[in-house]
Structures are given as C-alpha cells and as structure tokens.
Amino acid sequence: MEALEQFFSFVGVLVCLISLVKCVRFAQYVFLHFWKPSPRSYLQSMGQWAVITGAGDGIGKEYSFELAKHGLNVVLISRTLEKLQAIAMEIERTTGSSVKIIQADFTKDDIYKNIKENLKGLEIGILVNNVGMLPNLLPSYFLNAPDEIQSLIHCNITSVVKVYCLLICTFRRKGLILNISSGAALFPWPLYSMYSASKAFVCTFSKALQAEYKGKGILIQVLTPYAISTSMTKHLNPNIITKTANEFVKESLNYVTTGDENCGCLAHEILACFLRLIPSWAFYSRTFQMFLLTQYTDYLRQNVNVKQNFYK
Ligand SMILES: NC(=O)c1ccc[n+]([C@@H]2O[C@H](COP(=O)([O-])OP(=O)(O)OC[C@H]3O[C@@H](n4cnc5c(N)ncnc54)[C@H](OP(=O)(O)O)[C@@H]3O)[C@@H](O)[C@H]2O)c1
After folding, report:
1. Are 104 and 77 within 8 A, CB to CB?
2. Is pLDDT of 311 > 60?
3. What domain range is 246 assigned to?
4. Domain annotation covers residue 30
5. Is the Cβ atom of 170 under 6 angstroms away from ligand 1?
C-alpha cells in the first residue's frame, strides 16, 4: 500500500515538473514577445553574409529585408530572376547592405553546383532554409491533389539537405540556420499528407542536427508556423492568427536563441497548444476530415485575396 502511495506521489511530482518546464518555456515566449530584444549584434556576430532560399516573395523576402536591416549582406536564391533583381535593388537602396542573387529552381536536382560556385569566398554566418511549396491550399485527398510529388520532394526536402551540406563546412566557428517547416509538421495532417510529411522531415532533420552541432557553436532552429498571409496562402486576410510575413519574420527573429524549435510567433505557439489538446481519435476522425473539406474550405475561399483558379 505504501509502495503504491509512493508511486503515485512520484508520478504527481513528475507531472508537476513537466508542467513547470512547459510553463517556463511558454513564459519565455510571452516575455520575448513583449520585450522585443534587438537581435542585431547577435545576428551580426554570426558572419557578414546571410543566405536565404525562396527569397523572391513572402516569408523569404521578409527575412532578406530584415537581415539586411540588421546589417548583414544577403544572398537571395529563388526562381524568378525579375523578382530577385527588384528586391535586390530595393534592399541595397533602403539598407545599404550588399546583395547577391542566384536564380535557381529547387524542383530540379542539378542546381547545387552553380549555387556553390556563386557562394565561394563569402563569409556566410546565417542560412534561412525557407523555400517550399504547397501544391494544394484547399484540403484534398492524396490522389486528388496535384501530381507534383517529385517536385515537392525536391523543393521541400532535398533543398534543405543540399543547401545545408553546401554551407555547413563554410561556417567559421559560429553559425545560425533557420529551417522553415510548418505547423502542419507537428502532427500528421490528413488532406495535406505530402506537405505535412515533407515538413515533418524538416523538423526531424533539423532537431537531430542541432543535437550533433550544439557544442560546435552552430545553432539550428526549426520554425513551425501556421497561417501566414503570402502568395502560398493566396494572401489570406491577416487576423489574430493569420500573420503578415513581415509581422511573423520580425517576431521570429526575437526567438532565435530560445532553442531548437518554435512556432515563430506567440499566436501560433498558443494555437499549437490548443491543437495538442485535441485527442488523436478526434483529429483523425472522418468528422474532422469533413470539417476540413466543408467549413475550413469555405473559410479559405471567403478569405483569400487571389480568387483566380481557386474554385477548381
Ligand atoms: N505561408 C504560410 O502560411 C506558411 C505556413 C507555414 C510554413 N510556411 C513555409 O514557409 C516557406 C515560405 O512560404 P511562403 O508562404 O513565403 O511562400 P511564397 O509566398 O509562395 O514564396 C515562396 C518563395 O519561394 C520561391 N519558390 C517557390 N518554389 C520554388 C522553386 N521550385 N525554386 C525556387 N524558388 C521557389 C518562390 O519563387 P517565385 O518568386 O518565383 O514564386 C517565392 O519567392 C515555405 O517553406 C512554406 O512551406 C508557409
């Protein structure tokens, strides 16, 4: 009887300790959200250059501007040359930082030699592995989704690994890698199966590497945001949950020293906590899928700002 009592006391203490650790972790985000420390000197201490993939639009474009504003020179890698040229001019004009652009299509596998050549000789301290694609914004069954499996694997998975391989050896003593995953990676999302799985890869890869490199001065952080209003989300109306890319990037840079994983903003951290409360039998039920296919789809349709080709 006494042994049983001791066992339950032990379990109780363990649960309290785990809850305490979670509260402290959460309080850290609340504190940093309101305090907004400027990470300028920290970011600059990493090296002269930052490399951003998928820098031609959305989140990648905002990271490029923000890092340049923090005094770094930036290498922009993305698909559309005209967009890169326009952003490069704007960054140079508004921040005075140097900008280098590399055109590359990450759905292809033969682009990395050219990227490596173009990065030679630069003192790179920061990498934002941001490029990614979401073939179906509207939820859809795997076999009904656009057939872009190979492109998605190249763009969302191969790019993260290969750009990482190109850069990790060039880091001198220090380095910061931000891998942009998604909230859809935190647990498997039905009706977004390929996207969710590809982003889960980014999470796992990132956290495993951080364990390997922790002692070597290299910080690898994976970000798991939910909705951000960008081209990918057809410029969904921003609200308390749907952040603008600018809001998200600015806030996420406050959390770069908080550990190997976060959602990048407080609102999404809270949302993730709520979603974790949903029991898996409910999350993976037919009813939840019907909810995604009906109410959630209607919500998306009513709130996107690019209606063209969206009702198919
Ligand atoms: N938006 C969200 O709600 C959200 C939420 C969670 C995670 N994320 C992740 O955040 C990252 C950025 O998303 P975003 O919303 O900023 O996307 P976005 O607005 O569509 O911008 C993506 C950028 O990547 C470039 N790109 C796309 N495919 C490419 C390819 N095959 N080769 C080279 N460049 C390519 C695009 O080039 P172009 O300029 O030529 O189009 C664009 O500049 C992605 O990894 C995404 O999965 C987004």
Report:
1. yes
2. no
3. 39-303
4. no
5. no
* Domain contains 5: no
Q: How far apart are CA 192 and CA 296, in angstroms?
A: 13
Query: For 138, how many CA atoms within 13 A lie in the half-sphere containing its CB?
Result: 21
d(CA 52, CA 189): 27
Where does the pLDDT of residue 176 fall: very low under 50, low under 70, confident under 90, or very high at 90 and above?
Answer: very high
- Between the CA of 64 and the centroid of ligand 1 the distance, in Å, is 13
From 57, 115, 178, give the residue whose CB has the most ligand 1 atoms within 8 Å, as the site to mutate.
57
* 195 catalytically annotated: yes
Q: Is residue 25 part of a domain?
A: no
DSSP assignment letter at 297: H
Identify which of 77, 85, 133 to mutate to test ligand 1's pocket (most ligand atoms within 8 A of the CB).
Answer: 133
For residue 150, pLDDT over 80 is answered with yes
Give 71-82 pLDDT, tens digit per residue.
999 999 999 999
Over residues 30-37, mean pLDDT? 67
309 Cβ contact list (under 8 Å, min separation 6) = none
Residue 121 tokens, joined: 């000789």
User: For the chain, how many structural domains are there in total?
Assistant: 1
pTM to 2 decimals? 0.92
Alpha-helix runs per DSSP H in the chain: 2-35, 40-44, 58-69, 81-95, 112-119, 149-152, 159-168, 193-213, 245-254, 266-277, 280-283, 286-291, 297-303
Indicate which CATH number applies to the domain containing 282.
3.40.50.720
Separation of CA 20 and ligand 1 centre (Å)? 36
Ligand 1 atom closest to 245 (CA): 16
Ligand 1 pocket mutation, candidates 198, 232, 237, 306, criterion most atoms within 8 A of CB: 232
Ligand 1 centre to CA of 249 (Å) is: 14
Spatial CB neighbours of 219, under 8 Å, sequence gap ≥ 6: 175, 176, 177, 210, 256, 257
Q: If you measure from the C-alpha of residue 53 to the centroid of ligand 1, how many angstroms do you get, rounded to a whole number? A: 9
